[in-house]
Each structure stands twice: as structure tokens, then as C-alpha cells.
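Sequence, please.
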């Protein structure tokens, strides 16, 4: 193998690894939320706060947000849960503190919730 083979291999690896590192966490969160929506237990959640993660995306540098909830489900004491979102400008007011949502939660990991459409 010549040096060009190693360079070409490194470029191919970089072309695969870079998008996976950037998009991977969001893809995994999306798949987890889809699973919770399909198989989770119903609950109601009230937004208690939100904060930026420090990461920004896209040309407009949209901030990634962590939205904190107090979740209530029948037969359980209230608990805290959070979701991570990269919201559009129109979605930010949607998640303002005090807003109530129907959610589903993973009974094995109640801190994992998915907002229902």
C-alpha cells in the first residue's frame, strides 16, 4: 500500500465520521423519542424551565435547548424530566415555562419523555 492509499482511506473515514459525530446524537434522540411515543406510558408535563446547551446549528446558528418538565402520571409522585431540542424560531414560545403538554414516558427510565404531537 502506498501513501496515497492511506490518505484516501483517511479522507473516506473523515467523510463518514464527521457527519456521524454531528448528526448522530440528534438521530439517536429522535429514534428514542419515536420509541417512547409508540410504547411509553401517558402523563402530563409542565415546562418549568429551559436553557441553552451552548451548541448552535445551521446557517442561522439556532441554539440547542434543554427543556425541563415536571411530569405527573397516575399512581406516581411528580418527577423531573428533560428533552433536548433544536427548535425553529416559531417553536421557542411553544416551550415557555408554565405550558402543559401531554407526554409519554419510558417506565424503565421515567426521566426519558417524548412530547406528543
Amino acid at each position: 500500500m502506498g501513501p496515497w492509499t492511506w490518505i484516501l482511506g483517511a479522507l473516506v473515514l473523515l467523510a463518514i465520521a464527521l457527519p456521524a459525530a454531528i448528526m448522530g446524537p440528534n438521530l439517536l434522540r429522535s429514534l428514542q423519542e419515536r420509541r417512547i411515543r409508540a410504547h411509553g406510558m401517558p402523563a402530563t408535563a409542565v415546562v418549568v424551565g429551559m436553557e441553552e446547551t451552548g451548541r448552535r446549528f445551521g446557517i442561522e446558528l439556532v441554539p440547542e435547548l434543554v427543556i425541563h418538565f415536571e411530569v405527573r402520571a397516575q399512581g406516581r409522585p411528580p418527577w423531573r424530566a428533560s428533552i433536548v431540542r433544536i427548535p425553529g424560531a416559531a417553536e421557542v414560545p411553544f416551550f415557555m415555562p408554565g405550558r402543559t403538554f401531554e407526554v409519554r414516558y419510558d417506565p424503565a427510565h421515567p426521566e426519558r419523555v417524548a412530547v406528543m404531537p
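Strands lie at 41-57, 62-72, 79-85, 100-106, 109-115.
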